[in-house]
Structure formats: C-alpha cells, structure tokens
C-alpha cells in the first residue's frame, strides 16, 4: 500500500477532481436503483466463501515471507499461484516475467544508544537506504518532532549528525494519516541527506506501540547520495524521545548494510475469466504477491490476492461474464511498483474497461468510490445500491487508487475502489506482525462479497465503459 | 514471575493449606471491621502517586534492558537505584553483592524451515539451553500437541529429531494457566533430552499471537546434557503447526549459541524505612531489578519496584512506622532466583514479620491473600476491609508467593500477596514487547494504593506477627 506516498510524490497521480459534498452530510435520498436479484444472490453466497482465506493461509504458510525485489521466495510464490489459479479453474494462467534493473537488498540492521543510556534499539532499514560502514557509524542525534522541523534546518547544518524524526501517526479509517505522517519516511531521508546528515532514523510510520519496526521504501533525488535510513520501532522511538527530553546529548551507533545486488528476474502471475464480448474491455483486478520480508505478508497483500481471486471465481462459476475479468498477482510492489509498471507496458495495446486493486488489508470494506465515464454513470448507482447491504457507503472521492493499477489508470481507464477500513491496518503494516492471525475470516468474507458484487455488475454492465478524463 | 514454575518443580513450595470455600461463592457477610481513617486517607492519597511511574520510566529509559545474570546493565541499574532511593529519603540504602557461579548467556538465535516450505521463523533460546554447532543443526521435527504427548514417547525414540511441543495458553486472572501451559517450558526440554531429542522448540508460553518470542528458563536434571531449547513466537508456532498439518515431513535448521561464561558479580539493592520497634520484625517488600534482555522489563519488573518503593515512601512520609519496612530490588531473578536466595542467606539471622513481592505486572490488584499466624488474624481482616474500596477481593488461598521472597517465606515467615490481574500479563511477559507503554498509569496507581494500605496496616499492627506453620 503506497498510494498516498505516490500521491505525494508523483505529479501524475489522480487529483481529487469530482469532489462533492461528503456523502455523510447529504440528507438527500439516494437514487432508487433496483438491485439485480442474481447479483444479490451471488453477493450473499460470497459471504460463505472460503477461497480467499485458503489463498491467504496457503501463501503465508507454504511460502511465508515473499521478499520484494525478485526473491527466490517470490519465484516459489509465482509457481504456487499458477498451480492454485489453474486448480480453481481460471483460464490463460501464466507468468509474465520481467527484469528488475538493480535490486536493493536488506543487510545487517542493528542500533544501540552509546551514550548516555547504553541500550539496544530495534529498527529496520528503509528500502533504498544507504549503508553504514560494516563496523557501524556512531554519531550524535538531532531530534525533530516533525518533518517540518527538519525541513526548517539550514543546509549543511546536520553534518556529522544522525537526524531523528519522530512524528506520531493516528489511525484513520480512510488511511489518510499515512500520507501526512508517512512523509517523514517518503521524503525525510532525502531532505536529511541534502542537509548533510550522516544518517537518519525515523519513528516507524505506524499506529501501534510495539517493537516491530515498520519497513517501507524511501527515495533519494537523482544526484543525492543515499544515506543510511531506518525506522525505529514505535516503542523504541518513544524511548529515544524520552532520552532526548532528559536533556543530555544522545549518541547512536547504527549498523546498516543493505546493498544493491544487480538485476534480478521477477514476474506477474495472470489468470483470466474470458468474457463473451472481446470489444467491451478487460476488467482488471488484483493485488501484489511480494511482501516485506519481516512478516509473512498476510494483510499486505496475500489477503488482497485472496479477495480478488475468490470474487473472480464466484463470478466465473455463475456463468461467463460479458467482459473478460483479468486477475493479476503483481510482483515487486513494495520496492517500487515494478510489477504494475511492467504490466502496463506489456498490455499497453489492450482495452481495459476498469481497474481495481485490493491492497489495504483484510478488514471490512466501508466505502466504494468510482471514476467512471458519463456513459457508465448507472454502473456507479447500481454498485452503490448493491453494496449498501454490506454496510458500504458511497464516497465522494475519485476511484482508481493504487500503486499496481496506477500505470493503467493513468492511461484514462475507469477506476473502482472498494476501500477497507484502515483503523487497524497500520498497527502491523510492514512489520514482523503481519501474519495470518491478523486476518479476521468474517471481515475477509465481507470483502469477497463486496468484490463479487462489483465484478458481477461491472463485468456484465451493458453500458460502454470508456475512457475517463482526469485532471492532470 | 516464576511462581507456578517453582510450585511445579520444588517440593518445598508452599502448599494450598488453608483452602476454604471460594470467597466468590460465600454468601456470608464479611466481618464488620472499621477502617482506620488514617489508613484510608493514605490509601486515597496514593491514588495520585507519581513515584511508581517515575521509577518504571527511569529504569526502562535510562537503563533499558537489565540483562539477567550479572550484566553490566544490571550494575548500572543498581547504581541508578541507590541514587534514586537515597533521593526519595530512604535510609540504609546499599548494594549487597554476591557472586553468580556460572552464568548462562544468550548467543545467536535463528531458525528456518528447510523443507518443505523454506522460510525464516522467530524464536529465542530458553535460559539454560544447550547450544547447536555454530553452523547450525538441521533435523526433522516431531510434533506434539501437548507435553503429555511428548511424555508418552518411548525413551530413545526422538534420536536425531527436534521435538516441537505446541500447547496453547489461555489467559487467567490468577495466572494459573502459566503453571499448566508453562510446564512445556519448565520441564519439556529435560524430558525431550532424556528421550534422545537433538533439540526442542516449543510454542511460546504466552497468550498473544505475536512475533515476539517469550523467553524464560528451563532446567535439566543433573546428569542430563542440556540440548538446544527455544521458544518460537506464538505466530511462528501456529505457522509451523499449519505446515505439520499439511502432512509432509518438516525439517528445521536451528542455530543457537548460548554459552556459560563463568562467575559474575551481581547484587541486591536495599533501602529501609526504620521502625520504632526493633523486635517487631521486618516487613519485607520488593521486586526484581533484572529483566530478560529482549524487552526493557517494564512490567517485569520495573513496575514492581516502582509500586513497592512508592508505597514504602508514602508510609515513610506519613510518620515512622512501628516495624522497619525493607524494600529490596532483587538481582538475577529471571535466571534462577539468585537475588532472593542470596538475600535469605545474608539475612538469616534477622526476624522478618512478613514478606511480599510485586512481580506480576502493573495491572490492577484484584485479590489479597494472606498466610498469617493466628495471633495476627485481625491484620488480615483489617487488610480486607481497607482494600475493598479499591475493588480488591479477599481470596481463600495461601499468601507468600514469589520467587524472590520464597527463601524467606520457607523459613516460616508470614506472607501477604496483592495479586495483579494476569489477563494481559502473558501477552508480553518475557518478550521484546515488555516496554513502558504497556504500563497503564491509572492501574499502576491502584497498585500503589493497595501496597500503601497493606504497609500502613502491617507495619503498624499492634499484634505480634510470628512464624507461620506451613504444610511441607
């Protein structure tokens, strides 16, 4: 899940174009739209689904950590996926390979307070971090309560220091706090490097108080030499803050030895439910197969694969849809969205009717948002009506969010988002704690029901679903 | 906290002698006992205490991990304690040193599934574990759902195998599930070694589902060579169980390199509130200063030091008590209760009126249990009456529980236990997650109020508090 990172960093990201009054404040009655009884029946059947859990359990148990960046485990996971998707009855199941140019790989990662309160701290290197010497780097820290405080420092003022940015994150249902708090990770290291810092540690971008640090990528501008950059667990960051507040200078020793290991082969796994109308466009759904290697990637994103695959299977088993449904298990999302970029390149010549991804955990879907052309406005109304019994509200934002579908969406394809609740997501996001037990089977089934409903409506919509104009 | 371990292992442990009908089922009215207004006022003042939190915060921040077994950090913590206790106004503040004969020290600890589902698992060596070769030990596992299943195996049947005992623990308010589930740790390795196992891994003795393994000691019989013995995190044990249930043989590679490092100096920190009556006996209270090194030992047991010290200070500040109150910050509890044993040896010639320890976290005290001589029966009644407004029930078991006070208690000293709720305790007990944020300041203050009440009553009791007869 890196949507808000991208929104912050990429000018090509979709803007909130069609803003209206928030739905929650509207007192007008929704349009009276009948729900197709076949859709309703399929939705309710999906509430008994076990396929999504089986995929989530299988990937986290039989494969485990699926290291981002072309790992061997990802290759095993692709083979596992091909076998699973074929066994479920999908057509055109295949791996589409691609080459990652120069892969960043985690190394040793340790930290300790050297003075005045010697003790070990827990952290993890951020993706694209530079390395310390193998024997470590010891330096005094400079504390910043927020990224803004770091940004206010004069250039060169941090020479020989380790910047410590410790902004705290609060949970939000829509995940928007990831954008505001996450900036410390997304751009903090680049800013610290420009100001001369020897290294940077941040408080993990997470809503827990645990010892498992939250991994994630950062990015340095071209021409900026990457400095060592790591996330302390929230508990360790809180401890370090308390030390700072005692008033004595605090020095840290960091040992981070990530390195670039050259090109690696990787790939996307693709499966289809062939439609009857080749000209109606593909309905693209999926999630990502790779994970950060600290956990087993249950909520990020085995469950997303489970949800979208289970929904596609339910629609497939109900009869051939009008549009082809294409399920993609994208590779190497975490380290830079490579699978999605490669998919868009490889399939640039095909017509996509819509694109949707599930990459925000496995808690219940609470909102649907769309970006549909005027010709398909009725699709959105039918979606809202059919999803309402699942407790899903219609949002007023613009659909089409996600790192993997982003490159397709940006070509003008319609987007439909089924937003999971983010209230627990950042407790374990990118941590060692992202394991199967975090997935609530009942909430997972609600997800499958929402996605099944969406696919049944969109893949069979009689309207043309053409390009969407987006604000630049 | 190792009480139930000791109850299981040591025949000298106090038996449940004075069992009566559980208080909860009794419909008889409690004795009408007036609460001394001075005691009530002190109890209510204690609900505003900040000293306990300051000690807990200080130890976890300025010292951090206080490695059990004569570590340098423990030495720093003793010096910190002496300064703190003097600053609080205690008298006779001192360190009483002792020598640990041959200290067990944690080394490398890694594990991976080699086949059929290669992936990294998280574990920690149990105290007194043997070592694998430095290059690791690879062997097939044999799964046991319970310790009983392991015990049923014929001798020699586990040669060349790694035993995997995976019993699950449920939370209990009184912590009794630690005794039943904990046996897998306390005696499982010894049993597996006798049956020829190359090593043993257990599911952590904990009530969470996290990735932080739960440390703790195990013990091998004289003549049994220690085998490598480790606790998988609960999430990893659950994952390994799922692999086992898929039916293929599972092999693990373990690398555990703990070693014995010879004798080490360590010590207890002692402080006193001198009483007016030298012959009335010492009221002994305290907790332990060392911690497992995975966390910072906030609930185990910095908070116990904070609670007992804060209570002693409140009573001290209210005027000199009849009996001397002695606060002991015991050393090296976790690795074998050495501080408590050394204290009992060093103070064998002194009269103790009572002994109590706080070593079960910082959640609210829910029960008081006593073992008092008949001559001091009124003390128990007054305690029950004065503690009731704090929501504390009078239990029907025998007081005097705890590793550190055990050696004193077993000489016939009266025991008074203020039992904290164990419902959350084993979520983080002995894990990396035992950090300051787990301490709820409000519940901590309720503890201080309970201990203040107890000390005010017991230290000033006009009755003689003489020896207690205990069942062998």
Superfamily (CATH H level) name of the largest domain in chain A: Zn peptidases
Radius of gyration of chain A: 23 Å
User: Most extensive chain contact?
Assistant: A-B, 34 and 34 residues
> What kind of assembly state do the chains in view correspond to?
homodimer
Strand order of the largest sheet of chain A: 1-12-14-13-15-18-16-17
Structural category of chain A is alpha/beta
Query: Overall pLDDT of chain A, averaged?
Result: 94
- Total helix count of chain A? 14
Structure summary, number of beta strands of chain A: 18
Helical proportion of chain A, percent range: 25-40%
CATH class categorisation of the largest domain in chain A: Alpha Beta
Overall 3D shape of chain A: elongated
Just name the CATH architecture of the largest domain in chain A: 3-Layer(aba) Sandwich
Give the amount of beta strand of chain A, in percent: 15-25%
- CATH fold type of the largest domain in chain A: Aminopeptidase
Biggest sheet architecture of chain A: 8 strands, mixed
Into how many domains do the coordinates of chain A divide?
2
Low-confidence stretches of chain A: 1-23
Compute the separation of the termini of chain A in Å.
22 Å
Write the layout of secondary structure elements.
Two copies of one chain form a homodimer.
Chain A: H1 3-9, H2 37-46, H3 51-63, H4 72-87, E1 91-100, E2 104-105, E3 109-115, E4 119-121, E5 123-125, E6 137-144, H5 147-151, E7 162-165, H6 176-186, H7 188-194, E8 199-203, E9 229-232, H8 234-245, E10 251-256, E11 259-260, E12 264-273, E13 282-288, H9 298-317, E14 325-330, H10 338-346, E15 352-357, E16 365-371, H11 377-387, E17 393-394, H12 406-409, E18 414-420, H13 425-428, H14 441-459
Parallel strand pairs in A: 6-7, 7-8, 8-9, 13-14, 13-15, 15-18, 16-17
Antiparallel strand pairs in A: 1-12, 2-11, 3-4, 3-10, 5-9, 6-10, 12-14, 16-18
